[in-house]
Design a protein that fits this description.
The complex is a heterodimer of chains A (389) and B (332). Chain A has helices spanning 16-29, 31-34, 46-62, 82-93, 102-107, 109-115, 118-130, 244-277, 283-308, 316-338, 340-345, 349-361, 371-382, and strands at residues 135-138, 154-158, 161-168, 179-185, 196-202, 208-213, 222-233, 237-238. Chain A has 389 residues and is of the alpha+beta class. Chain A starts with 15 loop residues before the first helix and ends in a 7-residue tail after the last helix. Chain B has 11 helices and 8 strands. In chain B, a hairpin with a 3-residue loop joins strand 4 (118-125) and strand 5. Classes of the chains: A alpha+beta (389), B alpha+beta (332).
Chain lengths: 389, 332
């Protein structure tokens, strides 16, 4: 059920600088309400973090900030997509973590808005933005990671429904998710990327088992998903049957492009923290970390601006992702050099945060498509080199 | 300047650079009215000219023109600018007691068949300031008359000299208002160099892409091999970063964005120099193949106003001095 929506204080008719100022003023006026989120992710364990960040999502939705840049039919207030970038950046600059669905709404939102049936999109996207439900992403499988098009989870037609069986892995936050954007094979085994269909499954449906998968950071953020004859109504098909690859490309491009903008805002904040916290700072390394974060900022800004002009990200977003992993891993390599003794040996909140972020940064060249996959895309589709296969 | 006007400017300057011998470029640019374009639309003038400089490997005097104009000196054959090859200029004025006053000049400069009448040089002043001074070049002193070193065609030469100057110049160093021209001149030169280096790198990458697309080994174009693809993809990442940074340096006149553009352009040409050379194989190592001329130009220009590594260190030091209060750059 949709909650009643309070009157938004955010206004979609303001310019980027006006929105920046208005949002900063709003945050300054709500310091007490926001205090529990400041400089942290709001909790020590996953469940508390999830509750806290979901609460932050609702708080910002109710004030209207999360509704900026989204069409009215999706529960938004309208206005330029750039306003979404302003809100995520200013939030990070003020020292607050991203609200729970900030990443999901940028990664999955545009593709669902484009490819799902209009009534489905108009039903589920407002709930995602409002923090009334959360989504996860069922893409990777044990032997279909980089080679995603070889995925084997099957969806078989059964009247008005699909019956889905198979296994997914590396599904973040699945244990808390209400829905899953799922890729399944509806064509023959040999059909490759042409035989894939995207579905929006209900996580409460019978036959879904979620098993948390502890990552090397010590968090259970990732999960394995098992589908055993799960019924998904056909009206939950996203895009055409057999057209899931186009949906996939749109989602991956958003993840590599716009989500990179959110990430750079966060990295920029962490660079500032490092200069304040670091014990043995090497000037050249700090300068280089700024250089890389700045380059990432410029490239993801380019992607965001294109999106604001109505252009979905293309292969250039693989450059953004490649640079994201380069910048993120470099920053935390410098953090390891500069705060080695606390990062390695201490257990206070600040030291644990550096340790977690250092370890998490090791995945930056793997998630969302490995750096090797991105380089191949850049070589073949940006530089136009002859295809290997 | 709108798009068609820029295209027209580009076409005219391309023709001019292609048809003019290196020694006559300054006069040709003056006759063309490039300085007027510079005053009318600095971004269009600098971006267009310096991208062409890099692409066509044109001679040195354009940067000198720009530096002199930015520092408020008339650009002419008789006035030479001395560019530091470090972040902080190493040229300095020494006063032994009250007199004599001498200028120790150190940097790179444009070669000339006839020595200039005057030099303009950024020099160290107290309290980490830099002041741009103009002073007569002694008639009897030698001036480099042709390019040498790694890229003789570039028309640059190193200058190390001790020149007597008027005591009044030394007074200028203590005048706190006198530093103004250097920051703006430096930023103008950094932006121009970033454009030129980016264009040099773009040609290197283009040569490499053409080569790996047309050459076959093991029965396939070498561009199909992942090892080759991934090297050039990395160069492409730095190309896009450099191009974005060069464009962003025109958005706001803050000093950081010009420095970052030069750093990222330096990273791009360094990456292109290494990886494009490798995938060009034996062909790229020949004198006949054009690659080495671009590599030489990149190596020559990259240290101007400070190598990327030195600029990063200076940038990092300023962030550390501000204790993490990072500048807000490139707003949405």
């Amino acid at each position: 059920m949709n909650r009643p929506r309070p009157n938004a204080v955010a206004r979609p008719d303001l310019s980027v600088p006006e929105t920046r100022a208005a949002f900063a003023a709003w945050m300054a006026g709500h310091v007490e309400e926001l205090a529990s989120f400041h400089n942290g992710d709001g909790g020590d364990d996953l469940e508390t973090t999830f509750r806290a960040l979901s609460h932050l999502q609702r708080l910002l939705y109710d004030a209207g900030w999360i509704r900026l840049g989204w069409p009215v039919k999706f529960g938004g207030l309208g206005g330029s997509v750039l306003l979404r970038g302003v809100v995520s950046e200013e939030l990070a600059a003020a020292g607050y973590p991203p609200p729970f669905s900030f990443g999901t709404q940028e990664v999955l939102g545009p593709a669902v808005a484009t490819y799902a049936a209009p009534d489905l999109a108009a039903t589920v996207i407002p709930r995602l933005l409002a923090g009334e439900e959360t989504w996860c992403q069922g893409f990777s499988e044990p032997e279909a990671g980089s080679d995603l098009a070889s995925l084997r989870t099957r969806a078989v037609e059964d009247g008005d429904s699909w019956r889905v069986s198979g296994q997914k892995v590396w599904t973040s936050w699945a244990q808390f998710a209400d829905r899953c954007v799922l890729l399944a094979r509806t064509g023959t085994v040999e059909s490759g990327h042409r035989g894939i269909t995207a579905l929006l499954a209900d996580m409460a449906a019978p036959g879904i088992t979620v098993r948390p998968l502890r990552s090397m950071t010590g968090d259970d953020e990732f999960c394995e998903l098992f589908f055993d004859d799960v019924v998904v109504p056909k009206c939950r098909t996203i895009g055409a049957v057999g057209g899931g690859w186009a949906v996939t490309m749109a989602i991956l491009a958003s993840e590599r492009g716009v989500a990179a903008w959110q990430r750079q805002a966060w990295l920029y904040g962490r660079l500032g923290d490092l200069v304040r916290d670091g014990a043995d700072l090497e000037a050249a390394a700090i300068g280089e970390a700024l250089e890389l974060t700045y380059a990432l900022r410029l490239l993801s800004r380019r992607t965001l601006r294109a999106l604001a002009d109505g252009v979905l990200p293309g292969p250039d977003s693989s450059v953004d992702k490649l640079l994201l992993s380069t910048a993120e891993q470099y920053l935390f390599d410098v953090a390891l050099e500069s705060c080695a003794s606390s990062l390695l040996y201490d257990d206070d909140t600040v030291s644990r945060a550096w340790r977690r972020d250092y370890l998490y940064s090791r995945a930056a060249s793997i998630y969302g498509g490995t750096s090797e996959i991105q380089k191949t895309i850049v070589a073949e589709r940006v530089l136009g080199l002859p295809r290997a296969r | 300047m709108d798009e068609p006007e820029r295209d027209l400017l580009e076409a005219s300057l391309r023709k001019l650079l292609g048809a003019t011998p290196a020694g006559e470029l300054r006069g040709a640019r003056t006759a063309f009215g490039w300085t007027d374009v510079l005053i009318e639309d600095e971004e269009a003038a600098v971006a267009t000219l310096f991208e062409l400089q890099g692409e066509l490997l044109a001679g040195a005097s354009a940067l000198e023109d720009l530096a002199l104009t930015a520092a408020g000196f008339p650009s002419s054959e008789g006035t030479a600018f001395v560019f530091p090859v470090s972040v902080v200029p190493t040229s300095r004025i020494e006063t032994a007691g009250s007199d004599p006053v001498v200028l120790l000049v150190e940097g790179v400069t444009v070669t000339r068949p006839v020595a200039p009448e005057r030099i303009v040089v950024p020099v160290q002043a107290p309290e980490a300031r830099t002041v741009v001074i103009g002073t007569p070049w002694p008639e009897e002193a030698r001036w480099p008359n042709e390019g040498g070193g790694i890229d003789p065609a570039g028309g640059w030469a190193r200058l190390c000299a001790i020149v007597p100057v008027k005591p009044a110049i030394a007074v200028l160093l203590d005048d706190a208002d006198a530093e103004v021209p250097w920051e703006a001149t430096r930023a103008a030169c950094l932006r121009a160099l970033a454009h030129e280096l980016t264009a040099v790198g773009r040609v290197m990458l283009g040569l490499a892409v053409d080569h790996v697309t047309s050459r076959h080994q093991f029965g396939a174009p070498i561009g199909t091999f992942q090892a080759v693809q991934h090297r050039l993809a990395e160069v492409c990442m730095w190309q896009q970063s450099a191009e974005a940074a060069v464009a962003a340096a025109w958005e706001h006149p803050d000093p950081h964005s010009a420095v970052l553009a030069k750093i990222l352009a330096g990273r791009f040409v360094t990456s292109a120099g290494r990886h494009c050379q490798q995938v060009l194989g034996g062909m790229g190592f020949t004198w006949e193949h054009p690659f080495h001329r671009y590599l030489r130009r990149a190596l020559l220009l990259e240290p101007f106003l400070g190598r990327a590594a030195e600029l990063r260190a200076a940038l990092g030091a300023s962030l550390i001095a501000d204790r993490g209060a990072l500048p807000r750059l490139a707003p949405l």
